[in-house]
Amino acid sequence: MNEKTLRILEYNKIIDMLQMRATTEIAKKMIRELKPSSNIHEVRERLEETREGFEVVLKWGSLPISVTYDLQDTLKRAKMGYTLQPIELLRVNALLRCTRQLKEFMKDGNKQEICPIIYEIIDSLATIKGLENEIETKIISESEISDRASEKLYSIRRAIRDKNAKVKEKLQSMLQSYSKYLQDPIITLRGDRYVLPVKAEFKGNVPGLVHDQSASGSTLFIEPMAVVELNNEIKELMLKEKQEIERILYELSVKVADNADMLEHNNLNIGYIDFILAKGRFGLDLDASIPEINQRGLINLKRARHPLIDKEVVVPIDVKLGDTYKALVITGPNTGGKTVTLKTTGLLTLMAMTGLAIPASSGSQVSVFNKVFADIGDEQSIEQSLSTFSSHMTNIVNILKEVDETSLILVDELGAGTDPTEGAALAMSILEYIFEKGAKIVATTHYSELKVFAMEKEGFENASVEFDVETLRPTYRLLIGIPGKSNAFEISKRLGLSNEIIENAKLKISKDAARFEDVIQALQNKTIQLEKEYEEIEAIKRESLEIKRQLSEKKFKLDSQRENIIKKAQDEARRILQQAKYEADSIVKELVELKKNSEAVSLKQAEEARRKLKENIDELNKKSIEKKEEEFEALEDVNVGDEVFVTTVSQKGVVLSKPDSKGEVQVQIGIIKMNVPLNKLKRVEQEKKEVKKSGIANIIKQKAQNISTEIDLRGQTVDEALYNLDKYLDDAYLAGLNLVRIIHGKGTGALREGIKQALRKHHYVKSMRSGDISEGGSGVTIVELK
What residue ranges define each of the domains in the chain, with the CATH number in brackets? Predict the structure, then answer.
């Protein structure tokens, strides 16, 4: 990629912003080396990674990545046989712990479906639990090894503690006897040896070894002879301690070296996961989306925003190029947004080719180009004695040497800085040359000749940046299809220039030029009006979708309430049966008592008890259904769609089939479907039946007759497809379908993923799977309804 283009479009600032979202040193290094790719397959893979980064950050905030350091140098040192320091071993342990936590995190839920790329990377990581536990047990901090690192180390340190206690005890007793010779009655250390602070004039009164003196020379630090041997023993033990620590660190370093290949793999791949998450965080911070990628030179940016301008301030623009026209000529006043349009188009193209989400609405399209060239800004060079015109022309000459059909050219104020007539002619010739080479062009200009040229030349299109004459300020909106009007007279008039001068100036321009400016103004006004109407339509569409969403939520709540009612009815039935059982148990108990009190129970008494039991059960059953049965009448035959009362469960339902050979019909009660004998059904009274026929029963009957078992959503936008899918699933559910086939095609995968996400959350969907080869493969999803 052309380095000058990257600098002009400020690509490095995007890289800096992305780097701020990374945690690990490896991810930051990957970001610093990140460049746009002209390989469409690589770009799509990068964007798919970014999409997964979006999903992970949205669902879980992040992943448990607790490492920051790059361990490549540490692992190289271990493989070369060096002994690693405690801080290096702690970093290795942090990597091992992070690896284990990532693998444990990925075990739960359907994470493989949500982020298959990240799941596969984490699945490839190697856990080394033994080494992790050993380092964690033996290394306490950067400067401390655990006493339990080895039995020998524990023994040495215990001996050191004992010797230190003896030395202190000995010196403590000396403090009393030598108190008049001491500067202060304290025990201190010099060179790991215990000493007493003795006044210089009394050094002969305290026999021992002098180790140090104070800055003033008034105090000598003397090790009394009585503790010299004990201090020597402590010193020997400390040397042994150091040797044992070196041995422990070396053993751990050898184990790190033995596992270095796996650790290097973990180190690089955890960094790569962090790199993916950084792309996701960056995209979410920009309110960005994943664009559709092509290599046909087609650019269609919807509500695109320059990522380096505050998103609360920047005005979104729509840019189209490469479909019906290959060259876009933008005109308009200074500071109106022409240059920002060029930079937005170029920078968003580079971001997409890098694999980053772009700050534009979903459905935006970006092409992969082999070369992107930009000539923007004042390139005047004092050192080379080049004027602005000469400097720009030198850059244009270099661009023209390399331009081909896979290039995107961005040129600001082409031909400016010289005689207007010659500059305009030169600009038209250059644009024509680039166009004939097959490249895509976006150019800005002030020349009126280029407006006419773009209107007449096939494959060219005019665009302009809108200017509000009333406020004398640009709106920064891009209007494609019409050239920009100069507005010089209107602006001058608003600023106070007299009408006489303005009218005189109008007489000095040709009638054709004046008419052309008026046509431009009329076209601009019409375009603005159409834009406003379009925005109103979009607002109505969004409002409709919101109403649909609210209705869907209400429907779901009603379905839930209906299920609760059925559950309550079942609970009441169970309660009644339990009461009946209690009554029966009481009667049986009474019979047992009678038997105990009499050698034989008479037949008449037994019959009386049986009759009493039956009366109790009948009475309880009668109470539970008699009120409901008053509303219904017996039936001899049914039709599909009839509403009936099912006496076995005391609930209303809708008939889904005619009686079968067993005399049973299928009835739907809420979300439950069941087979019921005809003699267990009753018909709703005629008056109520007529009302129901105009409602849900009639709808179910119609759906059952007309609904298809599949729906084709190919060629639709994600929003359109989701709306049609939701409506279809409602119809299929009401019609009693068990399996349906959703055709979405393969394509870029955006439609398929949108549909699958919606199906996972849909309250009618029991399960889903991709179609097999005979059913349409990954271009089809088979759905089982509840």
Answer: 3-128+259-285 (1.10.1420), 149-253 (1.10.1420), 292-483 (3.40.50.300), 631-696 (2.30.30.140), 707-785 (3.30.1370.110)
